[in-house]
Structure formats: C-alpha cells, structure tokens
Amino acid sequence: xxxxxxxxxxxxxxxxxxxxxxxxQIRLPALWIIVAGSYLAMAKICLELxxxxxxxxxxxxxxxxxxxxxxxxxxxxxxxxFIGQLLSGVLLETHTGWLAPFAEAGGNILEGIIFRYLxxxxxxxxxxxFLNVLxxxxxxxxxxAAIGVSAFTWSGAINPDIALQAALTWFIGDIGxxxxxxxxxxxxxxINWNVWKKTRFLAEFGFLSLLTVTLSYIAFFDTFSLPSYxxxxxxxxxxxxxxxxxxxxxxxxxxxxxxGVAVAGTxxxxxxxxxxAPIMSLTLLQIFTAALVCTSLLVMLINRERRNVMIDIRQxxxxxxxxxxxxxGAYRAANWELRESEKRFRFMLETSPISVRITSTDxxxxxxxxxxxxxxxxVSAGRAIGINPxxxxxxxxxxxxxxxxxxxxxxxxxxxxxxxxxxxGTKWVLxxxxxxxxxxxxxxxxxxxxxxEHKQAEEKLTLSDRVFNExxxxxxxxxxxxxxxxxxxxxxxxxxxxxxxAIGQTPHFLRSGKQPPEFYTALxxxxxxxxxxxxxxxxxxxxxDLYAERLTISALRDDHGIVLHYVALFSDITxxxxxxxxxxxxxxxxxxxxxxxxxxxxxHFNQAISYSRRESALLAVCYLDLDGFKQVNDSLGHxxxxxxxxxxxxxxxxxxxxxxxxxxxxxxxxxxxxxxLQSFDECEQVLxxxxxxxxxxxxxxxxxxxxxxxxGVTLYPRDDADPDTLLRHADQAMYLAKTSxxxxxxxxxxxxxQQMQRQSRQLEQIEAAFVRKEFCLFxxxxxxxxxxxxxxxxxxIRWNHPERGIVAPAAFLPAVEGSAFExxxxxWVIDTALAQLDSWRGIGLEIEVSVNIAPxxxxxxxxxxxxxxxxxxxxxxxxxxxxxxxVESSVLNDLGRVSEVIALCRRELGVGFxxxxxxxxxxxxxxxxxxxVDSVKIDQSFVRDMIDDPEDHAIxxxxxxxxxxxxxEVVAEGVETCEHGMVLLDMGCDxxxxxxxxxxxxxxxxxxxxxxxxxxxxWRKAPVS
Length: 1025
Description:
With 1025 residues, this protein is of the alpha+beta class. It folds into 6 domains: 27-187, Arp2/3 complex 21 kDa subunit ARPC3 (Orthogonal Bundle); 195-311, no CATH class; 352-458, PAS domain (Beta-Lactamase), CATH 3.30.450.20; 471-578, PAS domain (Beta-Lactamase); 589-748, Alpha-Beta Plaits (2-Layer Sandwich), CATH 3.30.70; 774-1021, TIM Barrel (Alpha-Beta Barrel), CATH 3.20.20. The protein has 39 helices and 27 strands. Helix 5 (78-91) runs antiparallel to helix 6 (99-119).
C-alpha cells in the first residue's frame, strides 16, 4: 500500500513539471539557453580530460544531461541540447567541416528520443523502473556513437582504422555519463527535503560523505604510497552503507562524489586505472564506476521497495487489528442488543394492551399468561398458571373447535369469541391462535383483544340505528360545512327525495323561499351561540309542494367544544299550518287595496291555468313593482304611501279587462293574470296602458308625486311550469326590467335570467371585495419613441383576489358595467391615481396619468362636481397631469351630452381628455371634429396586426393622418415589437405604449422603471416623418 502510494506521489511530482509550470518561472527560449550552456560546460570539462582525435571522450557527462532532461522535462529540451552540441562541435572539437557538428547534434537528439521512448517517461523509483531505463540508455548511446563516429570518419577527423575503438569509447563514455548525471537530474524533483532538515540524517550523511571522499582520495591519488587496488574495493561497502541508510538523492550524491574524485585522480595519472593512455584509463574507470553506481542504485531501490513492503504489511496489520476490534465490538453490541431485546420483549408482554397466554400441547393448562390476560379472566397476578382455559369460554364447544384446528397445524386470526368470566360477567374478545414449538414441545400461543366496550357500543349503535330508521320524524345529519351526510326514511317520505339525492347537498335545496335571508341569519346566530334552535318554517318537497315543519337543530360537539355535526329533527305540520292559515285568512282580499290577496290569487291562478290549458290560450303572468315608491313613502309618510298604493291599484284595475286578475303581493308589488291571449302583442297593449296610467302624476296630501313601474312577464304554457315557478319567473323578469332602466316591462327569458343572476352574484362579490380593499392600480408607461422620454402612465385597475391572485379587469368589469357601483369604482380609480401622482411628486417624478372613464360614469349628473371635489383633495397636483380616456364607441350614443361634459371639465378644471380605442366605433369626421379631446389613441387591434395586414396598416396610417389634420396628439396602443415602433415612427407617430415597451406594473415599480428606461436604439436613430 505505502509503496504504491509513494510511487504514485513520485509520478505525480514528475508529471507536475509541465510546460505551464515552467513558463511561470522562465520562458522556453531561456530554458534552451540554460540547457545549451550546461551542455557546453560539461563538454568542455570532459574533452579536457582526454579525447580520441580531440573529439571522443571516454567520460561524456553531457550524455547524462541529455537523458536526465528528456526524462524529467520531455522533448521540449531537445532544441537546447541541439544548440549545445552544435556549439560544442564548432568551438571545442578539432574536426574539420560542418557536417560532423550537425551529425553529432542530430545523434544527441536521437539519443534523447530513444531513451525517453523506451523509458516511457517514468521516474526511477523502483528496481523495475531502473532496469527499464538501461535498454534506453544503451540503445540511445549506441545510436549516438554510430552516427558520431561515422560523421567523424567521413570528415577525416579520425582514422578509419580506429573507428571501432572510437565507437566503443563513445558508447562507454555516454553510458558512464548517463549513470552519473542522469539519476541526479531525473530525480531532483522527488527529493524529500524534510529528511535533509533532520540533524541526525545530516550528521550521518556528512560522516559517510567525508569517509567516501577520504577513502576515494587515498585510493585514486596514491596517498601514503599504499597499494590502490585493494583500497578501491573498500568503496563498495561505503556505497552499500549509503544505499541501505539513505534514499534516492543521497545515494546519487555519494555516487557523484566517488566518481568525481576517481576521475580527478585518474586524469592526473594516479590510482589503479592510470596504467595506460589517458583515454584507456578513463574507459576502464568508467566501467568500474558504472558497476559501483548500478550496484548502489539497485541496492537502494531494493531496500526502498523492501521498506515499502514492510510499511504495507504494518498498515495491513493495523487495518486487520482494527477490523478485529470492530468485529469484536459488533459482537459485544449484538449480545447487548439481544439481552436488551429479551428485556424489551418481556416488558412488552407484561405491559401490552393485548392479552397473551401459552397453553400446553393438549390446550388444557395455561403455561404462561401476561398481566393483561390475568385481568381479562379476573385472577390475581401469577394465579393463571395451571388453570384450564376451557372454563372461561361461554360455549365450551367453541374452544374445542379451536383446539381441533390448531392440532391440524392451522392458525386462527381474529375469531369473535364470547367469554364468561367469574365475577366479571360476559366479555367479548377477538382471539388469535398459533401452534408453536418451544424446546422441542408443541404449545399453543393465543392472544386476545378485549372488545367488550366496542361490542356494547355496537349494540347501542344498533338500537340507535333502529330509532333512526323507524321513527316518524324526519332526521337530517350534516357535517360542519352543513353538507348532508345522512337522512332517515322518514325524511324521504316527507320530502319525496331519495337518500342518494339528498346526500352531499346542503339543506338549502329544500328552501321554499318563504323565509327571508334574515330568518336564516337569526337561526344560525342562535344555533352557533346556544348549540340549539327550535322553530317552524316552510320547505319545498321534490314535487314542488310546500310543507310546514316544526324543526329542532342541535350542534354535536367533541370534548373540546368543536362542532362535528349538526342534527335536525323535524315533523310535517303542513295540515296544522293550513288549518291555522285558513282560520287566520278569513278574508281573501288585501285590507288596504281591497285587491285579492295571495290565497284568492292562488285560486284564480289555478283557475286561469286550467282555462288556458282547456282553451289553448295564452296566460300572461305579470309581476309589477313600483319605481320611486320608497322615496314617496319615506318623504311623505306611510299614510301617503298607503294612499298612493290605493290609487295605483285603482289605475291598474281600470286598465284591465273583467276576466283579468290583479293582486297585491305585499308592499309595492303587484301580480297580474291577463287571460285569454292569442299573442304577446295583446299583452303588450295592456301593459302599455297600465304603465301609461301609473306614470300620470298623483296628488297625494296636496303634493304632486310621480312613480313608474317595472314589470316582468312570463307566458303560460310557453313557460310550462307550476304557479309558484311562473310567478318566480315573472319576478326575475321584473328584476331585469329594473336593472335595464326602470319604467319598462321585460318578457321572461330563462337564459337571460340565469345570466342576470350570475352577474348579480358576481357584482355582490366585487362590491364585497371593494369593501375589503382588494382592488389596486397597475400602471403602463406611455413613451416618446424618438426622444426616449416617458410622457405618462395609464392607470389600469386590477383585483388582488386572495385566492386567484391578480385578476385582469376583463374578468370582472363586465359585471360592473351599467350598475350604480360602476360610478363608485370609477371615482375610486380617479382618487387613487391622484394620490399616486402626489406620492410620485414627493420623490421628484413629474408625469401624466390617464384614467379610463365608463360611459355611465361620464354621463352621471354629478360627474363634474365629484371630479372637482377629487381634484380639490389633491391641490398640489396640477389638473393637467390627469387625463381621462373615453372609449370612442361609448360616446356615439349621446355625442352632444358627452361633448358638453368634456368641454366643461377642460375649461373649468383643466383636465385633459383622450379618445380611446379610436377606429373601432364607426366614427366619422364629424364626431372627431365635435369632440374637444386632446389626443387620440389608436386601438391596439389595428397596431398589433398592421405589419402583416395591409388593411390594418392603412387604417393606422389613416388615423394618424386624421389626427394630424384635426391637430390632435396621437398615441399608438399595442406596440409589442421593435418593428411596430419603426413602422409607427415612419408614419409620423412618436407616442406609444404596449408590451414591447413595458407591461403594466405596480405603483412602487414605476419610479425605478422610469429611471432605468432606455428606448431601442433603432427607434432613436429612425427619421421621423
């Protein structure tokens, strides 16, 4: 393990010497210069030691430089080597010509390439890696020697007769230099500098180095005239000492010291190898030092690998010991868990709510029983052991059947069993049994869940169920949301609805409409306060018949007082009520007007329906309500109101035929039955006479008063319904007549009535949301595309719905249109916009805000007064900052009135006006000329499609030209792209708004948007027509 880690670390250190790291210190050319200089210096030293022909040295250190650098730094150093060898050949060697230097340089390059390729670029950290570099060193040296000697022979630098000797000398010199220099250079990056910082290491290495220098000097310089041959062998133990004690760097340094001293002595003619010519002496020395170096390196690497193996073994031993300790701890923990599990199991048995027992093989004797089982059979602790369990079964045969099943190797689960326990009476349990083996014996395990209380509750529930299903009073059970979850058979008998039809609905579906909303409000108030309500009311059966009921409602609460259910108990008292009503309504006529009351009207109604059905004639059912009666009644008093009702009844009666029926339903509401009609035209003639008669002035208490009528009509049998439904339809049509402007009549239309109801409900929701302050204003910028100026904002209302989020105006404004609330909402928008202008003015933002005005709002008699008051509430805001936008199509209905209002507001208040959605209202030059507006806004539908639709393009161009002709400012809506803006600018329209500029935004986002807004550069550079 440690050996692999060390090798990986060494490899990482070598590979980290990449070109990027080197460039951070010196540039590549500088590296080549350093390499070339080092090569030249080493070459000079070696050539001065002696060389064949002044060129071939038996001790060639540059070969080690070449191999060491290519192994450490790669092929990027070869240019520097090439330059160094070329300079060496030209400046130092004695051959002639230029071919030899270039051949020598090429040989060195080839030597480096061959060496690195065969060494695979791996550092020398193991015996295998060292042996791997030797073939590369040998082949590289051989190639270099062959090329160099061939070049020198061809150039005449050496005699061909000594070419073989020269080649051998060259090869030996390169090998020797490689073994001395190459390990030092290739391994300098993997030096462990921490070791060199240790005093003990430095002391030992210093001593060994001094000893090596001393002994080498004695051996190679003939010191003390001692024989040198035996002394050189003493150097090997020193090197082996270093190989065993030190690592790579220290051993290489010792080898370098030894070689240096040996070369110095031999070249001076001393030592055991100075026995021939200098060249031969150095050659012999090279062989000797190569043997020593290889031996010391191999021993060092073998020792290093041995240390790594020992480290791995120790590491594995530590890991093995750790695993053994871990397994031992796990075994101890498992034993502890087992003991704890046994304790928990026994505790669980003793405290379990389930009764547990174990019986003998024959099932006749209890061997084990937990405390819960002892309580089940009512015996004291420890007294259950040895008892025959059969004695506790209400039916002993039941237990015998259990034993029979268990002996057949079958299990039993949740068997309902009745026990008879002395002193405790009958108990019910859910019994389960298993056949088990314990210590080689068969035993029966049984566990029992006491459901005595559940059984008793079940019996009570059965009794309650009988009461629920067999009582003659109707029962309704609802959840807390008042949704029906159950009804009894008596309910179905009384109402005619099946149980499935009732479940899931609220009791509202039974309402007859006879009780006003206040009745139910009071009912729920009492119920929520006291948890109980009792009273009488009328409801409707499935067949439409009304029935009276005496009703009691109770709220069922949990232990915390939270309502869970409501229970209503009622009985049908219709007959009793009818008898009471018959006694109370001795007369069939209204006491005030002497018109038929509801009882008589109902009778006439049934007769009229029968006649219509028999004669195939139309029957007009009319519901009439007076317009303006409340004002008379409130201002002149009830006596005047009563007098007015009598006069109205007389006028209506005089307008009817003898066979028609008029009834006062209550208040200022009347019902009419117009019989024997052939068409609605005949009915219209009667209604016109009635409305004209009612509209004539009245003299009440000496004062002239005026009232009108709104009438709803439905025709039977076209509207084929029962009398109550017909009258309700006429009532709905009357409501529609009122909302359509009063003093008119309206024929019932089912779809229209439903739409009206939906719109009415939606309007109520909107008004409630207004009270809750859920409305807000968003603002959409209007900009000058040429200058980039933000000229104003258009205020757009939004509904911040608590569930639906931000709701667009198209989803709720149609429901407001035409209602009185439309004016209230419009005034709020103006006031809010003015307040926002005031707020923006406080932070230095001076812009214009435009507000859309509804037609009904603009034509309201109090519009000018209200607008003046709103502006007065914000005196610091110039009126010109407010612009009111009027939809073109809305002004066409009353152009004169609208023009007067606009002119008055502009003249007296200084408010600006704009004609919105221009081009959609079939406008003419006359309308544009007569309306005193400041600007015209082109409808977005034309602007959006003008790029692709030539007709829309022509309309937009025409509107712009028309506005110019009448000196009106023109604003384009619906600018969504840069191309839209370019087309508009080309047409001469600078002002625009739309999603291409900005979407509507909250008020607090406007200031930052205005500050950061930059128009499209294409717009700013575009020429304006």
